[in-house]
Design a protein that fits this description.
By secondary structure, the protein is an alpha/beta fold. It is built from 21 helices and 17 strands. Strands 10, 11, 12, 13, 14, 15, 16 and 17 form an 8-stranded mixed beta sheet that branches.
């Protein structure tokens, strides 16, 4: 065999992974192969593979007799929408995608290149975990990856797609990355599997119930996106990239935008009920404000009382954090506070301006909330907004009560522009609650307590349940007719695009984790 034939033979061998039979088995499970996933992910003919001929070094347990070129992971670089990205795609057909010393080295190599060249790194995870035959060497490989994930955090975007099993130590790399994507029915994540759970706690649970896409999208919040199939998952990942820059040194994307000459949104004038007790869907408000069809929601099925996601406003990428009156009246609780804080910190790390839409009656009361740390969790959201130096614009659409008014990007914690709609209510608490405290004795001693209560509520509402007291003090920059808000926001973000705000010199803050 001449040298070229030998080279072609080895490349053909590497492309086959664990062999035709195992590739067919992967398809039988409703899963794509490692290389098929990359074909969908990357621009056509853009993939350049690194480490195709790498093989493992293990000689124990007869492993020297089983050699697969590539060693269970396809690594390299390519482009998505013409932008450079670094990728690794684990191959379940080779030792179940298990991580060996050389498998880890391949991943570390492309992570190092991503950091040096300031481009996103994308991991397609499909692995049974550490390669047991290699013992502590494989554990060391995981730690090498975790360390790089941490060093890269906030420097380059890191995206993880879970395309199959991801268990044990393997889960911590995706957990450190910025966004996690999962596939319904074929992917799962857990630290300890169903068998261990049964042995230790005697609970009977399936892999899907314990750590499937639906579980992590709704209960734990570990995953940000759950998709029906792998193609949909990969397309979502590609869409997310359109909203974010290559690295922390770049600004958020701004795309060409042509106005049709009418930036008014008349629907907004009637979309929010005047009666503060009637709910409405904040997502409909978002859709009216942003460029048509551009809202890309994150964490859609988790902590639904707060809405977060990306959108374009006049072609400019922005991050949105909004209370959702249609779920738990839009209150802040443990899960929504953590969800919001995590999103705000991502946007701030990668220079994505923030739009905050406020309709919040306060924090959710109760023993469950207090015992699960609403104090420190609420403080996370407060800390995230206070720390963020990107352009920050707030619109109070209706209620802004109590400490939640402060936390939701108020002027006092660094917001650049604060707007309110005419029916906004900015106060320590709702009128009825306030009156029952302030005028308690007067109401109790009245001939008709209910009439006196109604009278005082009316007085309080007229005096305090409006945006004008806050506007008089400069806490609100402008009370805006809702139909005009889109135009105001476009001008506001344009004005703020060169904002520079330096934090005090320090190693890092101590966020209340």
């Amino acid at each position: 065999m001449n040298k070229l034939d030998l080279l072609h033979s080895k490349k053909d061998q590497a492309v086959l992974g664990g062999g035709a039979k195992r590739l067919a088995s992967q398809h039988a499970k409703g899963k794509l192969t490692a290389r098929e996933r990359l074909q969908i992910l990357l621009d056509e003919d853009s993939f350049e593979e690194i480490g195709m001929l790498v093989s493992h070094r293990c000689t124990d347990f007869g492993m020297e007799k089983e050699q697969y070129l590539g060693d269970g992971v396809v690594t390299g670089y390519g482009t998505i929408h013409g932008r450079l990205v670094y990728v690794f795609s684990q191959d379940f057909t080779v030792f179940g995608g298990s991580l060996s010393e050389t498998h880890a080295e391949k991943i570390c190599k492309i992570m190092d290149l991503a950091m040096e060249n300031g481009a996103p790194v994308i991991g397609l995870n499909d692995s049974g975990g550490a390669r047991i035959q290699e013992g502590v060497v494989s554990l060391g490989g995981y730690a090498d990856i975790f360390y790089r994930n941490t060093r890269a955090s906030g420097v380059i975007p890191q995206l993880s797609a879970i395309m199959g099993p991801c268990a044990g130590g393997a889960v911590y790399s995706p957990a450190i990355t910025d966004f996690i994507f999962m596939v319904e029915q074929t992917s799962y994540m857990f630290v300890t599997g169903p068998n261990v759970v049964k042995t230790v706690t005697h609970e009977e649970v399936s892999s899907e119930s314990l750590g499937g896409a639906h579980t992590h999208a709704t209960k734990s919040g570990v995953t940000h996106f759950a998709s029906a199939n792998e193609v949909e998952c990969i397309e979502s990942l590609k869409q997310l990239l359109t909203y974010i820059p290559q690295n922390c040194e770049e600004t958020a994307p701004v795309y060409p935008y042509t106005s049709n000459g009418n930036e008014l949104r008349m629907k907004l004038n009637t979309m929010i009920p005047e009666n503060a007790q009637i709910p409405y869907d904040m997502k409909e408000v978002i859709e009216e404000i942003v460029d048509e069809g551009s809202f890309f929601e994150v964490h859609k099925d988790y902590a639904e009382n707060i809405v977060v996601g990306f959108a374009f406003l006049g072609g400019r990428s922005i991050g949105i954090v909004a209370n959702q009156p249609a779920a738990l009246a839009g209150v802040l609780d443990n899960n929504s506070s953590k969800k919001g804080a995590r999103f705000v910190r991502f946007c701030d790390a990668f220079n994505v301006p923030l739009l905050v839409l406020v309709d919040v009656p306060g924090f959710l009361p109760g023993t469950d909330q207090e015992w699960n740390g609403i104090i420190s969790n609420g403080a996370k959201l407060l800390y995230a907004f206070s720390e963020a130096t990107v352009p920050k614009v707030t619109v109070i659409t209706r209620k802004a009560y109590g400490g939640a008014y402060d936390v939701m990007n108020s002027k006092h914690i660094g917001a650049d522009l604060n707007y309110a709609f005419p029916n906004a209510e900015i106060a320590v608490m709702g009128a009825k609650g306030a009156v029952e405290i302030i005028f308690k004795k007067e109401i109790e001693s009245a001939d008709n307590p209910q009439q006196k209560l109604d009278e005082k509520v009316s007085e309080y509402t007229e005096k305090f349940a409006n945006p004008y007291s806050a506007a008089a003090r400069g806490f609100i920059d402008e009370v805006v007719e809702p139909s005009l808000i889109r135009k105001k926001l476009q001008k506001g973000f344009k004005m703020l695009e060169n904002k520079v705000c330096a934090l005090p010199k320090k190693k890092h803050g101590n966020i209340p984790l």
